[in-house]
Input
Amino acid sequence: MHASRVTAFLLTASAMLVSLAACATPVGTTRESMHPLRIVNATFDGVTSLAIAPSGSTDFHVIALERPLPGGLASVMVNVPAGDCHRDVRVTFQGERTLLYPNLDVCRNDGLRLAAGRTRGGRSMRPQGSLDAAGSP
Output
């Protein structure tokens, strides 16, 4: 009876390790199909445009919004195109202010919170395209 408990424990532990290994997403990992990403706008400004590109690329794919996403915890689900797990997300607000969230792992994260003021990992972009570091909270 003791041997059956040990066997059951080992099988359970093995299944857990396989599940954990499947959750890891090294750089270069891809998704074959589109999947949802929730964008939460916790800023004071409305979002007028979203675009997603492979991390480090300038090949942004514009995500169509039915209407601007208002500030104040409004959210929207968007489909991330198939491709690499690590993406750059460019957000344009009313007034043409742009924020870039680099290297977001869309395979491990199912949402992105746009925060007012200083942002974690986001970089503000002037309309001319120069980048300024926004800092971390």
